[in-house]
Automatic annotation (TrEMBL):
It comes from Streptomyces lanatus. It comes from the Bacteria. Belongs to the universal stress protein A family. Gene3D superfamilies: HUPs. This is Universal stress protein. PANTHER family: ADENINE NUCLEOTIDE ALPHA HYDROLASES-LIKE SUPERFAMILY PROTEIN (PTHR46553:SF3). Residues 1-136, 150-288 form the UspA domain.
């Protein structure tokens, strides 16, 4: 069964920007759109907040109003709406597990372009089983114009980045966009040079040629699967977060990864994804990988 693209909305302008982005992506990919609102009864002694049934009705009406603009703009799009009983973080995380991707809105900083991640957003990104896309408040369809790229951070070997590259190539194919695959590298500490690694570096002709070969090897199966997608290979010395942000201005979407496994302190977003989420000036997709 084909899974939908899910958008989480709460009536805010940033969540409506995320909903609009999700609708456009669903149309491109030929997928259904699911729009969800997490709701839990909130009694309040000081004001007339209504009983549970009344609050639930308000939630349904707000969701219908938010979805109306999407159905009017995309009349052929299959749209389902759900008011889900529960806290936002756990409810959206569960919805992500049933979706091709989960799209959320995030407030842009007033002075610095980027995202403001609240606790709910951080929990969902860290715990979701599928890709989570953060869309900045004020995002416009014009940002997806031809010439702007899908930028994806590649690291490790072919298996390490397979999930990220799959998402990037699928997105680029749906949009007719170029993929810019970015691999950042730094000089390793001296103790990291083992006889085996020195042999590989020597065969490759040095550190930078080794990194270029690693990127090319990781991209090969995706180039073969998506022959019509133009690819730019970008290898640069520096920290992964800094290199990715240096090319974010040409991106219509940034794709970064996070480790899916949980640590002793729980699930984490990771430093690269965290930095890109806070400073990129375009939507960011965070893809879980092993």
């Amino acid at each position: 069964m084909t899974r939908p693209i899910t958008a989480g909305v709460d009536g805010s302008q940033e969540s409506l920007a995320g909903l609009a982005w999700a609708a456009r992506e669903a149309v491109r990919r030929g997928l259904a759109l699911r729009v969800v609102h997490a709701w839990r009864f909130q009694p309040h002694d000081a004001i007339d907040a209504g009983d549970p049934d009344t609050q639930a009705q308000w939630a349904r009406e707000g969701l219908a109003e938010a979805t109306r603009s999407v159905t009017e703009r995309h009349p052929g799009l299959e749209v389902a709406t759900d008011v889900l009983d529960g806290g936002p973080a756990e409810t959206l995380t569960a919805a992500a597990a049933e979706s091709e991707m989960l799209v959320l809105g995030s407030r842009g900083r007033p002075a610095v372009v980027g995202f403001l991640l609240g606790s709910v957003g951080q929990q969902v990104i860290a715990g979701a089983a599928s890709t989570v896309v953060l869309v900045r408040s004020g995002d416009q369809p014009s940002a997806e114009a031809a010439g702007r790229e899908i930028v994806v951070g590649q690291h490790g070997d072919e298996e390490d980045s397979a999930a990220l590259l799959r998402f990037a190539f699928e997105t680029a194919a749906a949009r007719g966009a170029t993929v810019r695959a970015v691999r950042a590298w730094t000089l390793p500490p001296l103790f990291a040079y083992s006889p085996g690694s020195l042999k590989l570096l020597d065969e490759a002709g040095g550190l930078e040629p080794y990194e270029k070969k690693a990127l090319g090897d990781a991209l090969r199966p995706w180039r073969e699967r998506f022959p019509d997608v133009h690819v730019v290979e970008h290898v640069e010395m520096g920290s992964a977060g800094q290199v990715l942000l240096s090319v974010s201005g040409r991106a219509q979407l940034m794709v970064v990864g996070r480790r899916a496994r949980r640590t002793a302190v729980g699930a984490r977003i990771g430093s690269v994804a965290h930095g890109v989420l806070h400073h990129a000036d375009c939507p960011v997709a965070v893809v879980p990988h092993n």
